[in-house]
Amino acid sequence: MARAENAVGSKGRGYRQLEFDGFEILVGKADADNDRLTFGIAEPRDFWLHVAGPAGSHVVVRNPLELDELPHPVLERAAELAAWHSKARGARGKVEVHVCRVADIRKPRGFAPGQVQLKRWDAVRVYPRGLDDEPNPS
Predict the structure, then answer these.
(1) Contact 10/77 with Cβ under 8 angstroms?
(2) Which of 22, 42, 70, 81 could crosslink 75 through cysteines, CB 3.0-4.6 Å?
């Protein structure tokens, strides 16, 4: 079944924006942009994703309804984007992606732009997939 995915223009912004199944997904573009996205734009109740290990974009899924968890298709799509917009993009298999609430992220003094520390998180494994890529069979 095809899912609704609409990219919104991001020119001049430090993040890409798209809508998937009624959820707004924001994808940071660079290290300083990631900091602005995570600590300036995202709300504490929003969900935050990042590939485990390698450098990559911060991905935020807006959560205005304050859901306890994201619907699985939305979580999977956001994780695919986090994997794609990272150094793990060329991985042959699935990539681990951390997911948590923005409230569970902190930036200790002295950390480089884009670098954060997570208090608690869950992990999902997905194939990296960009905006124009067809879904991989699971």
Answers:
(1) no
(2) 70
Domain with 45, as residue range(s), is 5-126
Whole-number Cα distances in Å, 1 to 4, 73, 84, 100, 135? 10, 11, 22, 28, 11
* In a domain? residue 92: yes
Strand 47-51: give its sheet, edge to edge.
Answer: 5-8, 15-20, 23-28, 59-61, 47-51, 95-101, 122-126
Neighbour-count burial of 31, counting CB atoms closer than 10 A to its CB (0-12 exposed, 13-18 middle, 19+ buried): middle
Residues 134 and 27: their CA atoms lie apart, in Å, by: 19
21 within 8 A of 71, measured Cβ to Cβ: yes
This prediction has a pTM of 0.89
* Nearest residue to 86 (alpha-carbon basis) of 39, 138, 135, 27: 27
pLDDT digits (tens, 9 = 90+) for 85-107: 999 999 999 999 999 999 999 99
